[in-house]
Structure formats: C-alpha cells, structure tokens
Amino acid sequence: MMRLVPQPFLSLAIFGLWLALTGTFGAGQAILGVVLGIAIPLLTQRFWPDRPRLKKPGAALRLFLRVIGDIIIANLQVARLVLGPTARLRPALVEMPIDIEDPLVAAILGSIISLTPGTVSIDIDFERRHILVHALDVADKAALIATIKSSYEAPLKDIFQC
Length: 162
Hints:
This protein is mainly alpha-helical. It is built from 5 helices and 3 strands. The two termini are about 25 Å apart.
C-alpha cells in the first residue's frame, strides 16, 4: 500500500484541496481527486529524498485547525485595517530567528506565515537561521516573533520531531 500511496497525508490533502477548488462534490470530481492524490506524490517522489516524517498526526491536525482559525481571524483584522484610515497601519519587516533545521519544515513554516493574511514570509535564510517576515500591522516586533514561534514553529518542531 505504501508503494501506491507513499505520502498518505499529502494524498489526502491533494484530494481535499481538489474538491475544495472545484466546488463540486460529484463522483467524477472525487475520482479525479483520488487519481491526482495518488499520481502527484508518486510522480514527485524523487524530489523528496530526505523528507521529514510526520511523527504526531494528532498534533498536525491541531496545527491545521489553528492555522484555519488564524486565517479566518486575520482576514477580519486585515479587512478592518484596510477599510479604516491608512494612518493606523504600522507595516514592518521582521527578522525572525528560527530553530528549525529541516528545509522542508522551515518552508512549511514560511508557507503558514504567508497564508495568514497580513503577513508574508519574504525569505528563509538557513545560513543566518531566520525568516524575513513582512507584516501589515506590527505594534511590537518581539510579540509578533513570540506569537509565530509559539503558534506555528513549536508545533511544527513537535510534529516532525526536528
């Protein structure tokens, strides 16, 4: 079974994303989602030679739910900021130190940061071990760093044991 589905969580994510993107839940779309969920990991398997192993799926689910919740809340906050007076905005570039050594896990962290409205990861620098983050509204850089580290980096380190 692992030969057919080498990355089951990725396959499940591709299937779910396919159904969400198409907006229809018919049998044809479900079958195509399954085919894509199996084919894409198989076709890209050689590009993932040292991929980290998911050690705690329950923690991964909790992080996923947290990210979804944070995206919803951040959308509302960004809408309020953008629709209000622009003088209230406090954009900033923040160099956030990272404790993650695995490039894929660091990329996942950067992606989570970029998925959350109001923040974008601009660069992941492994030599200096930091992520450059642009945030739309920053009152306290240290607080932003602490929030990202506790909300996303610590769970990722726990999930992948890195």
